Amino acid sequence: MSSKTNTVPFAGTKEQESELLKVINAHKDDKGALMPILQQAQNIYGYLPIEVQTMISNEMDIPLEKIYGVVTFYSQFSLSPKGKYKISVCLGTACYVKGSGDLYNKLKDLLHIDGGECTPDGKFSLEACRCIGACGLAPVLTVNEDVYGRLTVDDISGILKKYE
Q: Per the annotation, does 95 bind a ligand?
C-alpha cells in the first residue's frame, strides 16, 4: 500500500462520536462485541480510520493493535474513506484478458490515486474487484450502481466527466 492512503483528513463530527459511544456502551459488557461494534462504527463513519479505532480501543479497553489486526484481516472493513463515486474495476479473468488492467491503470493515472484510495476532494475512490457477473460485457467497471462494459482506455475520461 502506498504512503498516500490517507489522502482525505479525518473529519468525524461530534454527532458521529456520540453515536459511536452509544453503540460501545450498549455492547461494552458483551463477550465478542468487537465485531458488531466495528461494523456499526463503519456504518457511522463510512470507514475505520485510526481515530475511530483509538476511540474503540480506549472505551473497550482493548489494545489498539488487536483492533487494527481485526480491521485489516476482514475485507468488509476499510481503513480509507470511500468517495462519493466508488469506482470498481473488475479484474476477473474475462475482464482482465480483455484489458481491464489497462483501465485500472488509466484510472490510477487520471485520479492520481492507487487502488483502495480516495481522491483528496472525496469525490472518487478506486478499487479492484473479482467478477461482477457481467463477463459478456468485458471489460467492465462500475461507478456506484452504474455498470460500464466493453470499454477501452479511451472511454475512461468520458466516464469520469459524467461525475464531475
A: yes
Helix ranges (DSSP H) in 28-155: 34-45, 50-60, 64-73, 93-97, 100-111
Does position 3 have pLDDT exceeding 80, yes or no? no
**H/E run at residue 87:** strand 85-90
Q: Annotated binding residue at 118?
A: no
Cell numbers placing 103 = 483501465
Beta bridge partners of 147: 142
Q: Any known ligand binding at 131?
A: yes
Domain that holds residue 102: 85-161
Do residues 59 and 90 share a domain? no
pLDDT digits (tens, 9 = 90+) for 42-83: 999 989 999 999 999 999 999 999 999 999 999 889 998 899
Ligand-binding site membership of 90 (annotated): yes
